[in-house]
Amino acid sequence: MTAASLAGLRILVSAGPTYEDIDPARFLGNRSSGKMGFAIAAEAAQRGAEVVLVAGPVHLPDPANVRRVNVRSAAQMHAAVLAGLPCDVYIGAAAVADFTPRSCSPGKIKKQPGQDTLVLELVQTRDILAEVAAHPQRPRLVVGFAAETDNVAGYARGKLQRKQLDLICANQVGVAGCGFESDDNALLVIDAHTERALGPAPKGALAGQLLDLIAERLL
Ligand code: PMT
Asked: Which residues are 201's β-sheet partners?
């Protein structure tokens, strides 16, 4: 089967982690390497789509023919993704922090004599994916990811409904060989009516299979 062409489509992809600063020396982050989202962006561009990639702090080269927007925090990713609308497809592969420190200390936080604990107050970040799905300029297709350690399909289905998505790609994290950091992954792609298992396979191959499913719905 030849790969479906995506020429004429504008695709917005988010990838990588976000870093939430605690003070000038420290941040809250996560294990996302960006590999999954970068593979999707690269494959979509290779198939002729106009691709914007909003990337958290990762050590990956720019995919060919992709406009890359680098961000650090969940708030910056929110602004960059919303600025990327309108588009035909939004694919949220980034691991966005759910909580961020209420404030970032301007100076490095110092241990006080006798101090055993430090309490950080965290506030919820804005849900980029849910906002894109509810936006007046809603893309024709809004695709989320769900990173879960257990009840993978169940939690993913909940996110599909709650965030009003067209598709969600569920993947297991916390085990070797899939999810965060690895070159391979396995996805369960869920919509309102069906579930499709993709992989295990290299993230580049999975990106192609996911884009085939997306093309089926759009072209
Ligand atoms: O980057 P890699 O090392 O290659 O790893 C790939 C991956 C595991 C990061 C990727 O496959 C993946 O699962 N990405 C989503 C990770 C995640 O944060 O999932 P979640 O279940 O916490 O979030 C659900 C969805 O809501 C995601 O599409 C996320 O981008 C989005 N979200 C979450 C919080 C928030 N404030 N805004 C969001 O848009």
From this structure: 185
172 lines ligand 1 (CB under 6 A): no
Q: What is the pLDDT of residue 172?
A: 93
One-letter-per-residue 3-state SS of 55-121? ECCCCCCCCCCEEEEECCCHHHHHHHHHHCCCCCEEEECCECCCEEECCCCCCCCCCCCCCCCCCCC
Instruction: Write down the pTM of the prediction.
Output: 0.98
What pLDDT, in 10s, does the model give residues 12-71? 999 999 999 999 999 999 999 999 999 999 999 999 999 999 999 999 999 999 999 999
Span from the CA of 49 to the centroid of ligand 1 (angstroms): 22
Mutation test residue for ligand 1: of 76, 96, 183, 206, the one with most atoms within 8 Å of CB = 96
